[in-house]
Amino acid sequence: MNRNVLLSEPDSIYRDIIKSILTKSGYNCFCAVEENDILKSIDEDGIEIAIIDVQIVKTAKENILEKIKKKSSIPVILCTDDDVSKYLDIVLKYKIMQVLNKPIKASELLLVLDKNLNLNKNNLFGLQNYLPGLEKTHIKEIRSSSQVKEVIKGIIDITNDNVYSADKRMEIYLVLQEILTNAIYHSHGFSAEKKEGIPVDLPEPYKVVVEYGVVNDKVGISVRDFCGKLCHDKIIEPLYAAYKQHIMLEDSFEKGEDITDMVTLDGRGLDLIRKLTGEHYFITEPDKSTEIILIYDGTFETDSSYSGIRIFELSDN
């Protein structure tokens, strides 16, 4: 059975491109731009998921996201050609799980639609669900902070230095250092120990599982814990705080004010993921498990400065 998708895109050319991608992939695509038409389509067309450009949200006479949320529980994917950070307040308030950057890659769009419409563990968790063609992987279990450097070295060693520049390999190193230490310390209640730089061993049966592999020039990395503390709000709130701090620092710098007391490290790790990893996914089952997926492409450089939001959260129900 074909699935019904609402596309609310103000640019007619881009709308036709996205509609073509959807229809060729077996989706029924309904297009609406005006507020009343959007709500009418949700009422009458059996819409299961909506893709809405941020400009529609910004220019609507009334709060269109509020109306959609009251009318239906369908997932809403936002898209924009602007810096996603500018809309993190909306993402937080309306619990938007995905914000995609335009131009959206067909593969990314179809993957996000599939995950939303088939929200189950088998379809969400696992590196193979995000890196097509992956056959062989390396799996490492981390039970101590002392293992982090060795695991990172193993991942860096599989990045072909003929494809990945020294700068790119350093970026991968920095992101992994942050993700793995956070997975060990923060996820397991050792935030104070991290702040003091104290090594820790995870109590039984807890562990962090790292899986990685290569397909052509793409390197895929999965970091999974079994606590499930990194849910939507705990991802977006630090990112939003980091963005507000950035704006405040820029303003203070232009005014010549002392910024020393304004600088904090809140959201640093998550911000690093967004800025240094173009394709990444957060998958969480609250209070049970969290997995972070990173995909690096050595052939095509990604403009990560406008990197989107991709969160998949299993319901408590």
How would you characterize the overall build of this protein?
The protein has helices spanning 12-24, 35-44, 54-59, 64-71, 88-93, 106-117, 121-124, 148-157, 166-185, 191-196, 232-255, 268-276; strands at residues 4-8, 28-31, 49-53, 76-80, 98-101, 138-142, 208-215, 218-225, 279-285, 289-297, 309-313. It is of the alpha/beta class and 317 residues long. It has 2 domains: 4-118, 3-Layer(aba) Sandwich (Rossmann fold), CATH 3.40.50.2300; 123-313, Histidine kinase-like ATPase, C-terminal domain (Heat Shock Protein 90, 2-Layer Sandwich). Strands 2-1-3-4-5-11-9-10-8-7-6 form an 11-stranded mixed sheet, sandwiched between helices. Helix 2 (35-44) runs parallel beside helix 4, helix 8 packs antiparallel against helix 9 (166-185) and helix 9 runs antiparallel to helix 12. The longest helix is centred in the C-terminal third of the chain and has 24 residues, at 232-255. The relative contact order is 0.12.
